[in-house]
Amino acid sequence: MKKRMIGLFSITLLLSALLLAGCGSKKDTIIVGTEAGFAPYEYMKGNDVVGIDMDIAQAIADHLGKELEIRNMDFDGALLAVQNGTVDFVAAGVSVDEDRLEVMDFSIDYVNSTEVVVVNKDNPTVSSLDDLDNKIIGVQQGNIADFWVEDNISAKEVKRYTKFSQATEDLKNGKIDCIVMDQFPAEDMVENNPELVILDGVLFEDKYAIAVKKGNKELLDEINTVVEQLKEDGKIDEFTANHTKK
Q1: Phi/psi of residue 48, each to 5°?
Q2: 94 phi and psi, to 5 degrees?
Q3: Predicted TM-score of the model (pTM)
């Protein structure tokens, strides 16, 4: 009887272990940090964060066989989060520069960005790209435009925003003279705010890449494989078209 009891107990343990193994087979999670106020790269659609970058992030998760978790935060916060490992990677229209290369690693670039200037139609003080000196210029804090304006324009003041929606309202209300930003988000901004317009011409050009924690070569190699394939298959262009349809 004692041996029989031990046998039943062993079977019970085995079944429990199999059940736990089955539960453990659920996909692991990979976390992307972003700032969902930068359409068409990342923006809110109802309660969901969507956009070009989120399509790329989903492709990365699918390639790795993991569930994608999206964490929406301020742009600077997302970059800090990937440095300290709170998120696995950042997809948020991130430009690569020397300072960032010291504290995080980057994938190959996946899109060329064109930086433009948005103004209020009724503001006569800014009518061309040559009129930016001695003006109050709005930028997204930590964005490449922030650094470019600081280095290249003798602005009266550079106002830094965590959300472009805040900059939009200040531009409409005459609190700033213009906003320097990526062309696609600028087009989305002026479409939804007829008081605003994009000045003719390109201020400067840049490239976006995926950011990972410094030294995380294993993940970086996987991301590069995905990005390379997406570019080769024309999927980046497809993502862009899907999120820029009017």
Answers
A1: -105, 145
A2: -90, 125
A3: 0.77
Q: pLDDT at position 89, please?
A: 98
Please tell me whether the peptide bond between 124 and the residue prior to it is cis, using omega within 30 degrees of 0.
no
Enumerate the domain spans of the chain: 29-111+207-243, 113-205
The label of the residue with tokens 């139609």 reads 121
Q: Rounded CA gap, 127 and 137, in Å?
A: 14
| Per-residue pLDDT tens over the stretch 186-241 | 999 999 999 999 999 999 999 999 999 999 999 999 999 999 999 999 999 999 99
Q: What angle do CA 22, 24, 26 make, to 5 degrees?
A: 90
What was the pLDDT predicted at 218?
A: 98
Q: Do domains 29-111+207-243 and 113-205 have the same CATH topology?
A: yes
Question: In angstroms, what CA-CA distances link 164 with 33, 90, 142, 232?
Answer: 17, 19, 12, 32
Options 2.40.50.100, 3.20.20.150, 3.40.190.10, 2.60.40.3500; CATH for 29-111+207-243 is 3.40.190.10
What is the tens place of the pLDDT at every residue in 82-104? 999 999 999 999 999 899 999 99
Superfamily of domain 113-205: Periplasmic binding protein-like II (3.40.190.10)
Instruction: Considering only CA atoms, give the Rg of the chain.
Output: 23
The amino acid present at 181, given as its one-letter code, is M
Residue labelled with tokens 């229209």: 93
Distance linking the first and last C-alpha atoms of the chain? 77
Is there a contact between 207 and 87 (Cβ–Cβ < 8 Å)? no
Local structure of 236: helix, strand or coil: helix
Amino acid making up residue 94: V
